[in-house]
Design brief:
By secondary structure, the protein is an alpha/beta fold. The chain contains six helices and nine strands. The chain binds iron/sulfur cluster.
Length: about 210
């Protein structure tokens, strides 16, 4: 897949985190989401018109400049709203390095598979995803399970790459959160409890 002609609209990117999957990962939050989950952790990522526009080749080079990452975590916003561009990004990066890919989506996997029949971008992004976490965030079901914000969300292994990690998650490994400083802001990274998210939002409001 040729990445040169694709552009992505991003809410944020972090060159390294341990809080969004196995190992050290480059994390990308795309800009724009059709869902409106109550308690969404990234409300500023919901409008499709905001964010940073970046070419796939430029972002791929940025990712490849980080030496020690095991993979990418794609979140948002809604990654499948920019599926063609993200699939091109993964394809471009994997021409150089065998990086794992984790995707968080508000869609259900079965619906994505239905859409993939007529949408080549969705099919391509599903085809290059190793682990998919699907479904909308439901704050009343934020029960502390690793890798997901609420227990209605499911972890789907789409390849064998992270099978061993599923055992670790099933054994009740705790979540992690980190605070990162971006160019203009501070950002909470990872999967917080409802209480942690409320405290973070209050902190952000008080420091605005
Ligand atoms: S799908 Fe994710 S980004 Fe979209 S509204 Fe729900 S929690 Fe927020």
């Amino acid at each position: 897949m040729n990445g040169q002609s694709h552009k992505l609209r991003l809410y944020a990117r972090i060159p390294g985190t341990y809080a969004l999957g196995p190992g050290f990962r480059f994390a990308i939050w795309v800009q724009g989401c059709p869902f409106r989950c109550k308690g969404c952790m990234t409300p500023d990522a919901l409008p499709f018109s905001a964010g940073e526009s970046i070419g796939v080749e430029e972002l791929a080079n940025c990712i490849l400049s980080v030496p020690d990452i095991e993979g990418l975590t794609l979140s948002g916003g809604e990654p499948f709203a920019q599926a063609q561009g993200l699939a091109a990004l993964v394809s471009t990066v994997r021409q150089e390095r065998d990086l794992g890919v984790i995707v968080y989506t508000g869609h259900l996997l079965r619906n994505l598979r239905d859409k993939a029949i007529s949408d080549s971008g969705i099919a391509a992004l599903l085809a290059c995803t190793d682990l998919l976490i699907d479904g909308p965030y439901e704050p009343k079901r934020n029960t502390g399970q690793p890798m997901r914000g609420s227990e209605n969300q499911q972890l789907h292994l789409l390849t064998e790459r992270y099978r061993q990690n599923m055992d670790i998650y099933a054994s009740g490994q705790s979540r992690q959160i980190e605070v990162h400083l971006t160019r203009h802001d501070a950002m909470l990274v990872g999967i917080p409890s409802g209480k942690q998210l409320t405290m973070w939002q209050q902190f952000k409001q008080s420091s605005a």
